[in-house]
Specification:
Blueprint: E1 6-9, H1 20-24, E2 34-35, E3 38-44, H2 51-61, E4 65-66, E5 69-70, E6 88-91, H3 108-119, E7 123-128, E8 132-135, E9 142-145, H4 151-161, E10 165-168, H5 193-197, H6 206-218, E11 233-240, E12 242-247, E13 265-272, E14 280-285, E15 288-294, E16 298-305, E17 312-317, E18 323-328, E19 334-336, E20 344-348
Parallel strand pairs: 1-3, 3-4, 5-6, 6-7, 7-10, 12-19
Antiparallel strand pairs: 2-3, 8-9, 11-13, 11-20, 13-16, 14-15, 14-17, 17-18
Protein name: Glycoside hydrolase family 71 protein
Pfam families: Glyco_hydro_71
InterPro entries: Glyco_hydro_71
Length: about 350
């Protein structure tokens, strides 16, 4: 089932009445995404909207599935008691809270939302995302939310929890660096965003997203069944191209808030075909070997420390010791730069 639906940004809108008429002009289109013939409508934020306002909105637009995306709400068993107009909730927070330091993403909030939703016969959407990095001005829009131990962990969590829907955050949001597909230059022309995404192609994620989507559609509850599409081995790795303690003092915006939570590591996922054994991944950085990892059939994740100046490459050897596949990043890691860029370089192989 393919279609489009609206997710209205409540950092721009105040009340749903502001976009009611606009939405209604699209709901009857065949391309609008529906479940059980009900169009889905979502948001970014909107926690301040009252239940009465949501009720009035639904009465105006007709029979929809209203599933807002909240980033500041607190999940609890009685979450929907005062939000009876909602048909579900989407947990926008797919990254560790910055105050928690260098930790992997947690699924505690997701589990709480899921339990509350299912207890009321409502729906839960879970987000899956690699990182957040925004570098648009020196104060309000200059932050880093950890991607180390994030995407690879989030895939496992999503299959384990079995939410009703999964949202990849996001396909094309260049401004927060968590794009997984194409982004377009026209909307960001003349903005600082272009500077930190121009050479950072994230389509390497596709090598693992396809097998993940297939596992999800099968109803798998673990990543063990994630295998290459048509090869013996395929995967993706990612890393910053600027060291955590690098000198980028000439950047007028300065380092992003919470950059200290970043790590000098190379992370990745390698998928090995069923029946294939003896594969090994070797991660190089400049003239040093960061790590060697023995691979098993199916899903393998890694995070190796010691990232420093120089090019990063990953080579996969088969059981005979021959090179099965390898990839190298065109952008070298640096400990000094004119731009404080903590976006990921992403390489598929």
């Amino acid at each position: 089932m393919i279609g489009l639906f609206f997710s209205f940004d409540h950092n721009h809108f105040t009340r749903p009445s502001e976009y009611t008429d606009y939405l209604m002009s699209f709901l009857a289109r065949p391309s609008y995404f529906k479940i059980n013939n009900k169009p889905i409508v979502s948001t970014f934020n909107g926690e301040s909207v009252t239940n009465d306002e949501w009720t009035t909105f639904k009465a105006a637009v007709g029979d929809i599935l209203l599933i807002p995306g909240f980033s500041a709400a607190t999940p609890s068993p009685d979450f929907f008691t005062t939000r009876s107009a909602l048909d579900g909730v989407f947990n926008w927070n797919s990254w560790p809270d910055s105050s928690a330091g260098k930790i992997e993403v947690s699924d505690t909030e997701d589990a709480a939302y899921l339990a509350a939703a299912h207890s009321q016969n409502k729906l839960f959407i879970m987000g899956v995302s690699p990182l957040q990095f925004k570098h648009i001005d020196p104060s309000q829009n200059n932050w880093y939310r950890r991607g180390e131990g994030n995407l690879e962990v989030r895939l496992e969590q999503a299959l384990k929890l079995q939410p009703d829907m999964i949202e990849l955050q996001t396909w094309n949001d260049a401004g927060e660096s968590h794009y997984m597909g194409n982004w377009w230059e026209d909307p960001i022309q003349g903005t600082p965003i272009l500077d930190y995404v121009r050479e950072y192609d994230h389509r390497g994620y596709w090598n693992i997203l396809g097998p993940f989507i297939q596992a999800w559609k099968r109803g798998d509850t673990t990543t063990s069944g994630m295998v290459p599409s048509e090869k013996d081995v395929q995967g993706t790795f990612w890393h910053h191209t600027l060291a955590v303690n690098a000198d980028c003092g000439s950047d007028g915006f300065g380092k992003p808030r919470d950059f200290e939570n970043a790590e000098d590591v190379v992370s990745g996922i390698v998928l090995v075909a069923t029946g294939k054994t003896g594969f090994v991944a070797i991660i190089h950085n400049g003239d040093q070997e960061l790590g060697t990892i023995s691979l098993v059939e199916g899903f393998n994740k890694f995070k190796v420390e010691g990232l420093s100046d120089g090019q990063v490459s990953v080579k996969i050897l088969d059981g005979s010791g021959a090179t099965a596949v390898e990839a190298s990043g065109p952008l070298e890691v640096s400990s000094s730069a004119t731009l404080c860029n903590y976006n990921f370089q992403v390489l598929g192989f």
